[in-house]
């Protein structure tokens, strides 16, 4: 994964250098806010309240644009923050507590989108789609004060950091991949506004009695600028 991300950074750096030499290659920046969630499938014979509720996320990053006629190939590197209200297990002194609260997860994502551009007065409309890969950076679970499980108590400030790995002590796997779709408008001066939907396709759940599967989801609104 580190090798893939390093190669992605080198690709964008090369694009930035080439953009000074030809208009066929440009680069830009974008940032925005998201409605995000962890789409979680409960385990067998387990009833979970509020297993999947959306939260607010945000993202920022840089992209390159390889332009050929009306098509553009756009690789990017994005810092992405995902938030979701959900239920989590906490092991304390061999007792499993069920806590209601919110996960906040941070990822570096590398999407590569194929874009089709339609010229209109003042700029052009565009739409496209493509795959992405992601690598987890960190995460934290914060419990809801008033939603502890009946008959089970835990400290109000019992927040804990996410563990990433494939063993039974981890919360999530560190690798994520999926697809995204984008649509928006680019003005003649390079200013861009778009909507992006990310659909996680891999199960990032590492180990849990509560869930057999967890996948990421997000719907974003972004502003950007192409140089």
Automatic annotation (TrEMBL):
Q: Which residues form the signal peptide?
A: 1-20
Specify the protein name: Porin family protein
Q: Record's superkingdom?
A: Bacteria
| Keywords of the record | Signal
Answer yes or no on keyword Plastid.
no
The residues covered by the Outer membrane protein beta-barrel domain are: 20-204
């Amino acid at each position: 994964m580190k090798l893939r991300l390093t190669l992605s950074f080198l690709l964008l750096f090369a694009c930035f250098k080439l953009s000074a030499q030809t208009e066929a290659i440009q680069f830009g920046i974008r940032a925005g806010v998201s409605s995000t969630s962890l789409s979680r499938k409960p385990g067998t014979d387990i009833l979970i309240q509020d297993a999947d509720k959306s939260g607010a996320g945000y993202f920022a990053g840089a992209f390159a644009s390889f332009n050929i006629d009306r098509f553009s190939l756009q690789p990017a590197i994005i810092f992405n923050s995902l938030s979701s209200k959900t239920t989590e297990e906490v092991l304390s002194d061999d007792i499993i507590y069920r806590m209601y609260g919110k996960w906040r997860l941070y990822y570096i994502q590398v999407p590569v989108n194929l874009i089709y551009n339609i010229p209109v007065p003042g700029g052009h409309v565009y739409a496209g789609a493509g795959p992405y890969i992601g690598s987890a950076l960190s995460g934290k679970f914060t419990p809801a004060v008033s939603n502890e499980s009946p008959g089970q108590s835990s400290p109000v400030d019992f927040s804990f950091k996410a563990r990433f790995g494939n063993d039974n002590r981890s919360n999530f796997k560190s690798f994520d991949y999926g697809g995204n779709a984008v649509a928006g408008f680019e003005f003649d001066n390079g200013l861009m506004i778009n909507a992006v939907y990310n659909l996680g396709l891999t199960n990032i759940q590492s180990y849990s009695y509560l869930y057999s599967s967890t996948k990421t989801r997000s719907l974003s609104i972004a502003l950007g600028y192409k140089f």
